[in-house]
């Protein structure tokens, strides 16, 4: 049987090929179809080596930073003397800075809940089939830009503002200004309904509520039209059929949750701009809650 197999292999290789000797095993290498580019790489050394080098780089940077910057401990806590400004740890400064723009119930409970719930819903909302197991900007533009806006532009900027720009009295101090504890910032913060002439609580609440509802309605329409207008094979659409196929596979529930989280995140940015530019304190004003 081995001789017959060898003879058959010799005959199939061409007329000019010499027959293989009896009893000798023939090994034919199987080449991968394509241009020779490997689809998979081993974790070692390609990934672990880069991670190790990056870890060494971070250790060197942190070591040099700790040797060059003085970070002394403050005096023991004195319950009779409250420091000015009284700042939370850096990882809570974002929440403390949001108290400037929103009511405590909204800045300390509602918005952090949106952040936690939104992060938990990412595996359910993200149906992009591209980039499974890896992340490239071209194939995951929407996801990466959304995270960049929410984390770096908003959350990290809150921490930077609270650390370097907020001085005594939680007033705004530019770099180089002396943190004068006697400085009183003359600001006249007004509610948006009051700016439009509303003086009654009911009228102010209805006006503010109509603005918020209108913002979400218009935002949903714009978001829907933008997604629907994605052409075929567009990097934003994640599907060959473009935005129409994305909306079909996304479904109304996923689309609604994603749109709500995006609009709520953009609302934080809009409220910041209104406060800094026009000294607007609240949009919705009621005896119970304010936004």
Please explain how this structure is put together.
With 291 residues, this protein is an all-alpha fold. It has a domain at 85-278. 54% of the residues lie in helices and 0% in strands. It is built from nine helices and no strands. It has helices at 2-12, 43-68, 93-98, 104-120, 122-125, 141-165, 192-195, 201-228, 243-278. The chain is flat, with a radius of gyration of 31 Å. The chain starts with a helix and ends in a 13-residue tail after the last helix. The relative contact order is 0.09. The model is unreliable at 1-17 and 30-34 (pLDDT under 50).
Keywords for this entry:
mainly alpha; 9 helices
Low-confidence region ranges? 1-17, 30-34
Helical percent range? 40-55%
What is the number of E strands? Answer: 0
Report, as a whole number of angstroms, the end-to-end distance: 86 Å
Structure summary:
By secondary structure, this protein is an all-alpha fold.
Task: Lay out the secondary structure.
Blueprint: H1 2-12, H2 43-68, H3 93-98, H4 104-120, H5 122-125, H6 141-165, H7 192-195, H8 201-228, H9 243-278
């Amino acid at each position: 049987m081995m001789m017959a197999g060898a003879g058959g292999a010799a005959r199939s290789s061409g007329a000019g090929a010499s027959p293989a000797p009896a009893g000798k095993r023939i090994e034919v290498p199987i080449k991968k179809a394509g241009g020779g580019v490997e689809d998979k790489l081993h974790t070692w050394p390609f990934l672990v080596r880069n991670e190790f080098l990056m870890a060494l780089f971070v250790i060197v940077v942190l070591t040099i930073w700790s040797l060059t910057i003085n970070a002394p401990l403050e005096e023991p806590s004195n319950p009779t003397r409250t420091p000015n400004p009284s700042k939370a740890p850096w990882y809570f400064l974002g929440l403390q800075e949001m108290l400037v723009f929103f009511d405590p119930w909204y800045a300390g409970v509602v918005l952090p809940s949106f952040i936690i719930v939104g992060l938990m819903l990412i595996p359910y909302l993200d149906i992009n089939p591209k980039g499974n197991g890896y992340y490239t900007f071209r194939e995951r533009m929407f996801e990466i830009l959304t995270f960049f806006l929410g984390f770096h532009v908003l959350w990290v900027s809150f921490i930077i503002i609270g650390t370097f720009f907020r001085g005594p009295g939680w007033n705004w101090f530019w770099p180089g200004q002396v943190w004068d504890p006697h400085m009183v910032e003359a600001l006249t913060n007004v509610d948006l309904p009051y700016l439009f002439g509303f003086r009654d609580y009911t009228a102010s609440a209805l006006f503010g509520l109509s603005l918020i509802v209108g913002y979400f309605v218009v935002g949903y329409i714009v978001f829907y039209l933008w997604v629907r207008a994605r052409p075929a094979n567009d990097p934003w659409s994640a599907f060959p059929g473009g935005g129409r196929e994305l909306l079909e596979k996304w479904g109304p529930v996923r689309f609604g949750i994603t749109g709500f989280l995006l609009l709520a995140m953009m609302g934080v940015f809009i409220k910041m701009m209104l406060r800094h530019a026009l000294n607007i304190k609240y949009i919705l004003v009621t005896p119970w809650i304010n936004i």
